Recover the amino acids of this structure.
């Protein structure tokens, strides 16, 4: 299993509005990680997945320690 950081559009603020939020996900590949993120509650269906990348275990642990709403995605 590998570790991924998937950034999605979330929120119920109306059409074209929302926030970018990043989730640390464990999956066998990037496509599987995107599928997991796509099924999360509140993910916008028009612009579901913005980007995804593989991260290290240490980065995964760091992202899991903090709430997804408290962090800003670092590109």
């Amino acid at each position: 299993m590998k570790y991924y950081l998937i950034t999605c559009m979330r929120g119920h603020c109306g059409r074209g509005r929302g926030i970018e939020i990043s989730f640390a996900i464990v999956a066998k590949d990037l496509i599987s990680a995107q599928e997991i993120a796509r099924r999360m509650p509140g993910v916008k269906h028009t612009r579901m997945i913005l980007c995804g990348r593989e991260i290290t275990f240490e980065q995964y642990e760091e992202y899991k320690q903090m709430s997804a709403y408290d962090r800003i995605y670092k590109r």
Q: What stands out?
A: The longest strand covers residues 2-10. The chain has two helices and three strands. The mean pLDDT is 81. Residues 20 and 53 are 15 Å apart (CA to CA).
